Amino acid sequence: MKYYIIAGEVSGDLHASYLMKEIKFWDETAEFRAWGGDRMQNEGATLVKHIKDMNFMGFVEVLANLKAILNNLRECKKDILAYNPDCVIFVDYPGFNLRIASFCHLKGFKTFYYISPKVWAWKKGRIAVMKKVLTKLFVIFPFEKEFFQKYNFDV
What we know:
- The chain is α/β, with parallel strands linked by helices and 155 residues long.
- Helices cover 48% and strands 19% of the residues.
- It has a six-stranded parallel beta sheet with strand order 3-2-1-4-5-6, with helices on both faces.
- The two termini are 22 Å apart.
């Protein structure tokens, strides 16, 4: 299978690399194209964009880099269409990933979210978008399973 993985932060790169290792165990033909970091690349991903070029935190930094962020969104969408993966896996990084997940859903791709946005703590409005655009949600904290099941998620 062809997997497209997007992790926009160092911690996401780490978790995605572990996920890739596990996927390769079960799928010997796995091919990965990704937005991530060195760990994902070391696991065999073809990197489209490195996390150092996409991780903007805080209002001022986001505003100062808005053009780059919008270009990243466009580039990512275009690259997903060109690669035509069997599924797209999103790792944390919700500000970017939920926008791409909406696009992927509209284009008919299977969408999986690993390390869910922390909507139980803030931005609960994201739940409706997640419910609409995600094929499956994978959580890491035990209490998250019960939380998301209240919203009828396949967790």
